[in-house]
Design brief:
Distance between the termini of chain A: 41 Å
Shape of chain B: globular
Radius of gyration of chain B: 13 Å
Number of strands of chain B: 11
Oligomer: heterodimer
Strand content of chain A: over 45%
Largest sheet of chain B: 7 strands, mixed
Number of helices of chain B: 0
Helix content of chain A: under 10%
Shape of chain A: globular
Structural class of chain A: mainly beta
Order of helices and strands of chain A: EEEEEEEEEEEE
Strand content of chain B: over 45%
Order of helices and strands of chain B: EEEEEEEEEEE
Distance between the termini of chain B: 37 Å
Structural class of chain B: mainly beta
Largest sheet of chain A: 6 strands, mixed
Largest interface: A-B, 27 and 29 residues
Radius of gyration of chain A: 13 Å
Helix content of chain B: under 10%
Chain lengths: 113, 114
């Protein structure tokens, strides 16, 4: 079955520290992978996506993610976190004829001053 | 440009009542999706439209839920005989049909059933 696991429900980091949010997926075919961010009262905003090619993808707001097929992972990283990065982050996998996405349960990021 | 628009942003209704939630997708996007997001959870797929037809409704939880998209643009999600368990944020997204195209989400409708 297709699924996405985000093992960390809540993470707190200090402003300026590096960040890594974990994502593991299970998908029967070649996956398309996405990271979305959701701020309070806002819709989901696309951070970055992986379709094929270079396994390290760059996104908006200084985020990047690395696709590791052998580990079925697509972890999100940022070298230096800003207070405005506090939000909930969702990993998603998609593909197939409908392009529908399957989301993980999210990781809530808090940033300490 | 204009994004996905959902109305109302908030809806409070009594148990047993009927509600309609509206989604206006990005112009030119033929694919439209409805998701439901409960507190502390990721978005859960409900239904997918390609043009006017529901190509995948496997996520609708039961027959109280129904969605239409009569002209291939605006979509309405309809919930009959609402239950308290239907309380959630209902998200709409649209995309073009290119394989792997990202979904563009609206801000959602927060439905509260009292």
């Amino acid at each position: 079955a297709q699924s996405v696991t985000q093992p960390d429900i809540h993470i707190t980091v200090s402003e300026g520290a590096s960040l890594e949010l974990r994502c593991n997926y299970s998908y029967g075919a070649t996956p398309y992978l996405f990271w979305y961010v959701q701020s309070p009262g806002q819709g989901l905003q696309l951070l970055l996506k992986y379709f094929s090619g270079d396994t390290l993808v760059q996104g908006i707001k200084g985020f990047e993610a690395e696709f590791k097929r052998s580990q079925s992972s697509f972890n999100l990283r940022k070298p230096s976190v800003h207070w405005s990065d506090a939000a909930e982050y969702f990993c998603a996998v998609g593909g197939g004829a409908t392009n529908k996405l399957i989301f993980g349960t999210g990781t809530l990021l808090a940033v300490q001053p | 440009g204009a994004g996905v628009s959902q109305t109302p942003s908030n809806k409070v209704t009594e148990k047993g009542k009927y509600v309609e939630l509206r989604c206006d997708p990005i112009s030119g996007h033929t694919a439209l999706y409805w998701y439901r997001q409960s507190l502390g959870q990721g978005p859960e797929f409900l239904i997918y439209f390609q043009g006017t037809g529901a190509a995948d409704d496997s996520g609708l939880p039961n027959d109280r839920f129904f969605a239409v998209r009569p002209e291939g643009s605006v979509s309405t999600l309809k919930i009959q005989r609402t239950e308290r368990g239907d309380s959630a944020v209902y998200l709409c997204a649209s995309s073009n049909t290119t394989l792997g195209s990202p979904l563009h989400f609206g801000n959602g409708t927060r439905l509260t059933v009292t």
